[in-house]
């Protein structure tokens, strides 16, 4: 029987390649546009525990240290090409601690 390929992703904090199911996905939801193509609402950044939300995704280990490393190096801001407010990082940290 043929062995299935295990999807690998890189953690934004520790830069290690790990199995996708071991990591938590941080997603920037798409911008909402009107019929003229003008952006009416910017996409928000959230934690995607299911891994199924639409949008640009980045992966972080499920421990807080990796999220803090990614925050310090501004890796999520570079990946999503937007300024991420401090409140959002605090919200992500609290969701990670509640998840464990």
Would you list the SSEs in sequence order as H and E? EEEEEEEHHH
- Mean pLDDT, to the nearest integer, reads 88
Strand portion: 25-35%
Radius of gyration: 15 Å
Domains (count): 1
Portion in helices: 25-40%
List how many beta strands DSSP finds: 7
How many strands, what sense, and barrel or not for the largest sheet? Answer: 3 strands, antiparallel
Please tell me about this protein's structure:
This protein has a single domain, classed as 2-Layer Sandwich (Hypothetical Cytosolic Protein, Chain: A). It contains three helices and seven strands; from the N terminus they run βββββββααα. A three-stranded antiparallel beta sheet has the order 6-3-7. The protein has a two-stranded antiparallel sheet with strand order 1-2. It has a two-stranded antiparallel ribbon with strand order 4-5. The radius of gyration is 15 Å and the shape is globular. The termini are far apart. By secondary structure, it is α+β, with helices and mostly antiparallel strands.
Descriptive key words:
three-stranded antiparallel sheet; 29% helix; 3 helices; two-stranded antiparallel sheet; 7 strands; Hypothetical Cytosolic Protein, Chain: A; globular; 100 residues; alpha+beta
Concise overview:
This protein has 100 residues and is α+β, with helices and mostly antiparallel strands. It is built from 3 helices and 7 strands; from the N terminus they run βββββββααα. It has a single domain (9-99), classed as Hypothetical Cytosolic Protein, Chain: A, CATH 3.30.1230.10.
Write the layout of secondary structure elements.
Layout lengths: L7 E3 L6 E3 L3 E6 L3 E2 L5 E3 L3 E4 L7 E6 L2 H9 L2 H6 L5 H14 L1
Antiparallel strand pairs: 1-2, 3-6, 3-7, 4-5
Helix pairs in contact: 1-3
């Amino acid at each position: 029987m043929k062995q299935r390929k295990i999807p690998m992703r890189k953690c934004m904090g520790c830069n290690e390649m790990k199995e996708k199911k071991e990591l938590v996905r941080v997603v920037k939801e798409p911008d909402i546009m009107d019929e003229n193509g003008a952006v009416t609402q910017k996409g928000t950044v959230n934690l995607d525990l299911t891994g199924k939300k639409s949008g640009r995704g980045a992966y972080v280990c499920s421990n807080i240290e990796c999220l803090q490393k990614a925050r310090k190096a501004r890796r999520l801001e570079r990946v999503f090409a937007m300024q991420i407010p401090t409140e959002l990082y605090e919200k992500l940290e609290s969701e990670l601690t509640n998840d464990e």
